[in-house]
């Protein structure tokens, strides 16, 4: 031990000398900008093509704008690229008046010659709904969010009324239509850029070298390393304060924290609950939190034997000690889920029947179903997500709970991209995953993850399709009366509690940890993080790392 | 001498051939489609399938397939990464310089600090100095590198906040890649932040380089010490002493050059261990080198990345070991003599 100390003193003397030498060379100057430690690689630079929060974070709020925005503070829709909109009396035609003088990004390969207009809106949405559109098949992954909400069936046609007016003709009433347009998935692309790429026969670039109207433009992406954005000087809202934003891709949560402490990044995503005390201890750091609009659940693949038996699914639901999960995994940063909807939602009701933790009943149900020696695989999502910072630990707790009722569990995990691929082949028994809402409409918690349409688009992880359930959702969408809709969604919750296609267990608080001199990074309870108004108080503060 | 060099070249070629054979057999055992394992193309079109089948002669016998495989690989065609769909060769050239940089700095630290300390240990008559130096090196030799890396980053990074512990540079500095070696590139950069960027990159390399240097450092100290002790007993040193030469002259001019020969030999023997240590260090410090790249490739089941990483690292180790052996022979009069006797 003595030798160890000696060796380390030697090391530290060496370290000190070098650090002193370095800092003596003069203060280091850092270019103006923000580094955000993000949790993973985006799968694409076009959020239309994905449902993953990581991609939405890296694209929607940075590179693009949608027709509408959602104001989280007041819970209402606000204008974005559309300045106003009219709804016809039968609620089937929505006419949007578009903002004039909005410029698309310039890049090395593209210089826009015209401003944003109706053609861009038509292009962006026709690409999704029209399967004969030349850009429809450019996406290899389809348009999962839009498929899961049945967008193609909903929209009859999109009509260009004038250069700055677009009308959406709906096939049926849909109370969640505007909310869906305000999600981070419904972004506006440039038609002029698409035309240029068609000429060059480089169509796939539209989703990689992204061009949008957003506050930042994409400069460079190096996989597993970083994404660099410069601010868009011609942004139609206030020009962003910071000159550049860099996403430092750091999948390990502890490394993100370490980078934050050493000043290599200013804001860091998705801390594990156990790391928060460390952040609170450091004087220079703080935690930003906002109650989340999300739900973490354990989806049971209802196509697999014996999970297709509702008694088995119910048994599993009774076997899980949710409180224990909340304590160990979330450590007070989440509330227990009684159903899909979080307490923040206007359709939430606390008296939804709770499935009690009751191992004895679970064992009885299993015996009734005649299931013995059951072994199931639990796939644990390998990356931290807003709704579940540590799925692997959750899986271990469930493993212990199920051991109590004599069910064996194998925990399976792969690296994120492999996990995602294998998940879409639906060869799993069950998966620990979750959903982070894209907008405040309660429909967002049901249609994209439990409807029959979402089985097709693979976002229904339970592979559960119940026409009765779909009918409830349809009725809920056909009226705008909040009270009536609330009642329908309560009914939907009941249906889920009885059929147990999935077992929800937590609504997590959305957290980021950041350096105190970074102000006003805008967190929304939904996906996405915006840096538009973010400033860094004094850049010198982080320069003094070597002397502290 | 030329015959000797040819023999070494033969050794290099033979070893590499065995490596390729092993890789070829391994590829056929990968649990994916053979075309994907060879080229990384995920959903090949009919056209691509025909071309790949032709290129790799997939319809022929094993030997013919192996020759085709060898041809492709020697042409520099390592396929595509199955996750990113970039050329493996491009990814490899992007990550190799960072590893070289780290390895070079670690080696430099090991030699610069190790040789003087080894000489000191051998010359010192003070038992305490001798024993403590030996104890320190033994401790250093036996500490697992992952533990050391984590401990150093905990102390100097997290608790003291002196040094960055992850990555190569603060990402706000935008450095164009000219040589691929970041420290050189920062100096070549015409940005007004060039000097700051250089210092920042230098700070980033300290902890990983020190962590990686511990193993070679301890070996250098121990070998230098034992070599020096043997040499100092030699008659020619005694003769030099008798002639009244100063101790420092004797050490610098007569003893050290001879002591360096076994050090070089041992550095050569250590290359394999050094490379695997470097991978661990790269992962701990998120150093964007070939080790971190290979490990992430393994996690992502990216079989072409795994092949590319193993091939390049193994070839490099074979090449460097042989190079060090040649240097050793060139420097060492005794083995030169053996060489002539053999011919």
Automatic annotation (TrEMBL), chain A:
Keywords: Signal. GO terms for biological process: dipeptide transport. SUPFAM superfamilies: Periplasmic binding protein-like II (SSF53850). Gene3D superfamilies: Dipeptide-binding Protein, Domain 1, Dipeptide-binding Protein, Domain 3, Periplasmic binding protein-like II. It comes from the Bacteria. It holds the Pfam family SBP_bac_5. One of its GO terms (molecular function) is peptide transmembrane transporter activity. Residues 76-454 form the Solute-binding protein family domain. GO terms for cellular component: ATP-binding cassette (ABC) transporter complex; outer membrane-bounded periplasmic space. Transmembrane segments: none annotated. Belongs to the bacterial solute-binding protein 5 family. This is Peptide ABC transporter substrate-binding protein. It comes from Shewanella colwelliana (Alteromonas colwelliana). The lineage of its organism: Bacteria, Pseudomonadati, Pseudomonadota, Gammaproteobacteria, Alteromonadales.
Automatic annotation (TrEMBL), chain B:
It is a multi-pass membrane protein. Signal peptide: none annotated. SUPFAM superfamilies: MetI-like. It is found in: Cell membrane. Keywords: Cell membrane, Membrane, Transmembrane, Transmembrane helix, Transport. The chain crosses the membrane at residues 9-27, 102-123, 135-156, 201-223, 267-285, 305-327. CDD domains: TM_PBP2. GO terms for cellular component: plasma membrane. Pfam families: BPD_transp_1 (PF00528). InterPro entries: MetI-like, MetI-like_sf. Residues 96-328 form the ABC transmembrane type-1 domain. One of its GO terms (molecular function) is dipeptide transmembrane transporter activity. Belongs to the binding-protein-dependent transport system permease family. OppBC subfamily. This is Peptide ABC transporter permease. It comes from Shewanella colwelliana. The gene is sapB.
């Amino acid at each position: 031990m003595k030798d160890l100390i000696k060796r380390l003193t030697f090391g530290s003397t060496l370290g000190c000398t070098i650090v002193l030498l370095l800092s003596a060379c003069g203060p280091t100057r850092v270019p103006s900008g923000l580094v955000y430690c993000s949790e993973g690689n985006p799968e694409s630079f076009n959020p239309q093509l994905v449902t993953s929060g990581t991609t939405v974070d890296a694209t929607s709020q940075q590179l693009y704008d949608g027709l509408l925005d959602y104001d989280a503070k007041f819970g209402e829709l606000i204008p974005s690229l559309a300045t106003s909109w009219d709804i016809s009396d039968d609620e089937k035609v929505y006419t949007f008046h578009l903002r004039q003088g909005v410029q698309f990004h310039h890049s090395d390969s593209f210089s826009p010659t015209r401003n944003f207009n109706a053609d861009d809106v038509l292009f962006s949405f026709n690409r999704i709904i029209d399967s004969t559109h030349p850009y429809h098949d450019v996406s290899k992954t389809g348009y999962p969010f839009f498929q899961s909400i049945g967008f193609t069936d909903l929209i009859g046609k999109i009509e260009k009324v004038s250069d700055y007016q677009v009308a959406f003709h709906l096939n049926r009433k849909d109370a969640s239509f505007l909310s869906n347009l305000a999600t981070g998935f419904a972004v506006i692309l440039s038609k002029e850029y698409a035309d240029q790429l068609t000429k060059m026969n480089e169509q796939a670039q539209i989703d990689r070298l992204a061009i949008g109207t957003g506050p930042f433009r994409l400069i460079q992406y190096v996989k597993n390393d970083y994404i660099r954005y410069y601010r868009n000087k011609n942004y139609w809202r206030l020009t962003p304060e910071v000159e550049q934003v860099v996403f430092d891709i750091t999948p390990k949560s502890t490394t993100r924290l370490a980078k934050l402490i050493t000043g290599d990044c200013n804001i860091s995503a998705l801390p594990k609950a156990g790391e928060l005390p460390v952040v609170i201890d450091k004087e220079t750091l703080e935690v930003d939190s906002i109650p989340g609009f999300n739900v973490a659940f354990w989806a049971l693949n209802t196509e697999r034997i014996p999970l297709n038996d509702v008694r088995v699914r119910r048994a599993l639901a009774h076997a899980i000690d949710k409180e224990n999960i909340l304590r160990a995994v979330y450590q007070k940063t989440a509330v227990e889920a009684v159903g899909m909807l979080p307490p923040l939602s206007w359709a939430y009701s606390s008296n939804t029947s709770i499935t009690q933790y009751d191992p004895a009943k679970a064992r009885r149900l299993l015996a009734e179903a005649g299931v013995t020696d059951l072994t199931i695989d639990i796939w644990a999502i390998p990356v931290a997500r807003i709704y579940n910072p540590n799925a692997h630990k959750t899986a271990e707790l469930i493993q212990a709970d199920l051991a109590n009722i004599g069910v064996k569990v194998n925990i399976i995990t792969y690296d994120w991209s492999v996990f995602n691929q294998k998940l879409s082949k639906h060869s799993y028994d069950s998966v620990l995953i979750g959903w982070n809402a894209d907008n405040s409409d309660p429909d967002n918690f049901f249609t994209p993850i439990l409807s029959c349409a979402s089985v097709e688009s693979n976002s229904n992880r339970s592979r559960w399709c119940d026409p009765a359930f779909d009918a409830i959702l349809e009725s809920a969408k056909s009226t705008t009366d909040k009270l009536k809709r609330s009642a329908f969604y309560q009914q939907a919750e009941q249906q889920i509690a009885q059929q147990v296609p999935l077992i929800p267990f937590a609504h997590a608080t959305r957290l980021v940890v950041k350096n105190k001199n970074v102000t006003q990074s805008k967190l929304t309870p939904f996906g996405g993080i915006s840096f538009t108004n973010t400033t860094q108080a004094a850049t010198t503060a982080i320069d003094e790392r070597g002397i502290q | 001498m030329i015959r000797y060099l040819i023999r070494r070249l033969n050794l290099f070629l033979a070893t590499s051939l065995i490596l390729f054979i092993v890789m070829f057999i391994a590829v056929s055992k990968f649990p994916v489609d053979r075309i994907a394992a060879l080229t990384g193309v995920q959903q090949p079109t009919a056209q691509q399938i025909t071309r790949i089948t032709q290129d790799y002669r997939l319809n022929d016998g094993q030997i013919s397939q192996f020759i085709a495989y060898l041809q492709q690989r020697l042409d520099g065609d390592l396929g595509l990464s199955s996750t990113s769909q970039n050329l493996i060769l491009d990814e490899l050239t992007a990550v190799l310089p960072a590893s070289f940089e780290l390895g070079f700095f670690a080696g430099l630290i090991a030699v610069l600090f190790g040789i003087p300390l080894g000489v000191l240990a051998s010359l010192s008559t003070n038992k305490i100095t001798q024993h403590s130096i030996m104890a320190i090196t033994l401790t250093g030799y036996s500490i697992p590198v992952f533990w050391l890396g984590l401990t150093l980053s905990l102390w100097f990074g997290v608790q003291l906040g002196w040094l960055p512990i992850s990555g190569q540079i603060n990402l706000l500095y935008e450095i164009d890649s000219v040589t691929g070696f970041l420290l050189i590139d920062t100096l070549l950069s015409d940005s007004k932040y060039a000097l700051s960027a250089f210092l920042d990159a230098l700070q980033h390399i300290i902890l990983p380089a020190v962590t990686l240097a511990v193993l070679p450092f301890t070996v250098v100290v121990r070998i230098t010490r034992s070599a020096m002790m043997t040499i100092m007993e030699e008659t020619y040193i005694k003769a030099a002493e008798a002639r009244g030469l100063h101790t420092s002259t004797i050490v610098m001019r007569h003893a050290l050059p001879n002591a360096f020969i076994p050090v070089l030999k041992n550095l050569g023997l250590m290359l394999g261990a050094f490379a695997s240590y470097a991978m661990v260090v790269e992962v701990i410090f998120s150093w964007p080198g070939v080790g971190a790249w290979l490990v992430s490739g393994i996690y992502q089941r990216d079989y072409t990345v795994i092949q590319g990483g193993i091939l390049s690292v193994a070839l490099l180790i074979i090449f460097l070991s042989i190079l060090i052996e040649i240097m050793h022979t060139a420097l060492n009069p005794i083995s030169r003599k053996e060489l002539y006797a053999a011919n």
